[in-house]
Each structure stands twice: as structure tokens, then as C-alpha cells.
Amino acid sequence: MKPIIFIMPGQEALGESLLAGGGFEKGVLELRQFPDGESYIRVLSDVADTQIIILCQLHQPNEKILPLLLLVGTLRDLGVHSIGLVAPYLAYMRQDKRFHEGEGVSAQYFARLLSQQFDWLLTVDPHLHRIHALNEVYSIPSIALSAVQPIAQWLSGQVSKPIIIGPDGESEQWASKVALAAGCPFEVLSKERFGDREVRVSVPHVADFLDHTPVLVDDIISTGHTMMQAAAHLRESGMRAPVCIGVHGIFAAGSLAQMRAAGLQVVTTNSIADPSNQIDLAPLILEGLQQFLQ
Ligand code: R5P
Fold it and tell me: pLDDT tens digits for 110-164?
């Protein structure tokens, strides 16, 4: 019997891409809200003894997590063989330490919650910074795929003479690998954050690369301030407007429109469905899934 993929709302495009290869069946599900806002779940596929994959976009996770957990409970009751979670964007990874007294380390608690429910987890470029590997917080088999190759492939077809720029120290892990895969130079800037919406970025040393197309690469674009500050400094240094690539386009509070209004070309993977999606993660995820399926 083929494994069944249940596609949660918001991840339809990526889900259809995964199904296009023919290796999976599409799970049929009725998911709606009662008038009081509680979720109604009904599984319409025959799932007994089947390997289940749930594809769920965990951007803005609070509203998605409860229907997800209700689905897991329903599937377990229906006697499935196993349930894996494909969450191309893994939420809550940035609150990875107690920054101020009394704060919760949400990355740990969220990992504990998911580990209790699923048999395995597959994600793409989770924000691994102070947590170095998923298995430091997830107790189930977990794979963190990297979007480096799909990004490098996109670059080779779309951008001439790129120089990859990491907008802050944390982005070096993506910027350096994308540059290596794309065979081009890279620079990493340094960033100081003064609050949720205030960041200051150092001036880069790019005098030798003024004839290149700057490509800012980061894992997450949220308010867009990191990218916009970096872009402003590149311009001050005489570079042209950069292409901004984020693995995960969260785009808090209309930031995509602001970035575009600032003359930036913004490109993301389809980990979170968005008009800026240009890089398809389906081939990468299909390859990664082979490690979990029998
Ligand atoms: C930092 O921890 C991440 O790697 C990104 O640099 C950050 O999330 C981007 O946030 P924003 O778009 O709000 O500046």
C-alpha cells in the first residue's frame, strides 16, 4: 500500500508537487470549524496499517497546531502504521534560550509537544543557532534538509555574476554553502538587534565586487528589516539593489510589500506558500522522505 499524504491548509501547492511523482496517495480529510471556533476533523481515506505523512505549514503555528494534533489523534484511533510530520518551516526555533529572566525556552517545549505525537519529523533549514542539531530538542528521528542546492540551482539560471551576502553572522551557514554550491564569492555582514523591529548592520567590504549582482541569503525573512538594512548598506557601498533570498518567507506585517517598494527582488522557497515563491522544495523533500519510508 502506498504511503498517504495528508495536506493541511496552506500547503496545497507543495503538496500537489509531492504527489505529482505518483509515489503517494492523497489523504482525504474533512476539516472545518464549528460555529464556536472548535475544529471538526473527519478522515475519509482508508488508513488502517498505512504509513502516514502529514504536510503542515507551521508558519503562524498557534492556529494550526490544534487541528494537527486532532488529526494525529484521529489517525492513531483508525489504526495507522506510523505518522511522520513534514513541516518545511519549523516554528518556534528562534526562542532557543532564555534571553531574559522568566522567559520560556519555547523551542524546547514545542519540540517536546511534537515529539510526543509523531514518529518522525522532516523539515528544511530549521533555525539552528544555539541549538546545533534537531536531536538536541526532538526525541524522535528528525531530518533537517538544506535548501542550499535548490537555491544554488535557481541562482545559476536566474542571476548573472552573483556575490552571495549573508546579512548577519547567523546567516553565514547558508550564505557560505550557497556560494560554494553556486561557485561564487561571498561576504557576511554583522548585525546588532535592538528590538523586534530595530536592527543595525555593519558596512561590508565589497569594493572588489561592484560589477557583481549582490544576493542576500538568509534562512528567514520576517519583518524584512535585516534584509532592508543590509540592502541599504550595500547601496551605500556602491552596489546595485540586491536579490533577497529567504528560505522561509514569513513576511510579518506586510514586509514583502515594503521590501518590493524599496526596489528589492524578493525570492523564497515554497516552504511557506507566498507570491514570492520561486524555488520548489518538492524534489529535495521527496529525496529526504526515502529515509523514513519502508
Ligand atoms: C535571525 O535570527 C534570522 O536568521 C533572520 O535573520 C531573522 O529572523 C530575520 O528577521 P527580520 O526579517 O525580522 O529582520
Answer: 999 999 999 999 999 999 889 999 999 999 999 999 999 999 999 999 999 999 9
> What separation in Å is there between the alpha carbon of 157 and the centre of ligand 1?
26
- CB 94 less than 6 A from any atom of ligand 1: yes
CB 198 within 8 Å of CB 223: no
Atom of ligand 1 nearest to the CA of 193: 14
Cell of 263: 526596489
Rounded to the nearest 5°, which phi and psi values hold at 42?
-140, 125
Domains of the chain: 4-146+281-289 (3.40.50.2020), 148-270 (3.40.50.2020)
Q: What is the DSSP letter of 140?
A: S
Q: Which residue among 221, 223, 247 is best mutated to probe the pocket of ligand 1, counting the most ligand atoms within 8 A of its Cβ?
A: 221
d(Cα 246, Cα 231) in Å, to the nearest integer?
A: 14
* Ligand 1 center–CA 251 separation, angstroms: 10
| Cα 248 from chain centroid (whole Å) | 4
CA distances from 293 to 3, 42, 72, 143 (A): 8, 25, 18, 13
Q: Residue 127 CA: which ligand 1 atom is closest?
A: 4
